[in-house]
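Example record for the data management plan.
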Amino acid sequence: MTQIDNFNLTEKFILLAMHPDKARYKISDQALNAGLIGSILLDLSKEDKLLIKNKMLQAKSSYSIMSTTHNQILSIIQQSEKERNIKIWIQKLSMKSGAYRKKILEGLRDKGLIKIEYKKFLFIPYLKAYLIKKNERLNLIDQIREILIYSKKPDTEMASLLGMVEACKMYPIIARDRTERKNFQKKLKEIIKSDLIASGVDQVIKEMQAAITAAVMVSTVAATSGSR
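Corresponding structural encoding:
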């Protein structure tokens, strides 16, 4: 067992999305933000803190032991006066995804996987995160590749991570060439539709895809309007 096997889904998602050599990510900001929130919701659902019913989220508790970020998001959902569906929660919580991601990154730093440099630009603070233990990320990619290449049955945790890869279009991260990318994309879609993905998890994945698509459309329209 490697160190990463003990990490939650959110930590695995962030590590997978990180560039192995540079302080940036291998996926779009929209996918990163929605994927972060989606992975936290899946973690909370696995912890049996959230109930997913007819696409609506209901908090079963106000406390999570996973991390301060998980606990914070669970409390927001639990204290909400209005019941919202998964897509709305992903969109709403994604507005502060930068702050949530910072806490997750600091947790990964404390576990020795990354290093963080704190910077300022025009008095605005930001951080740069670099991978230290690259083998942990490579091990995670190898686990995913083994499932897709050899049609191995994934456990619940890995099935959820595969759903994240599909929802956030992370195929280039795990594929070595265009042919593999096409094959992996096909297999991932089949896994999402199969009974390997638990009920509730598939709803989060689908709503995450919708939230990402909506965010991309909004950013595209904004960019087009700004260029006129």
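Summary line stored alongside the record: The first helix runs from residue 9 to 17.
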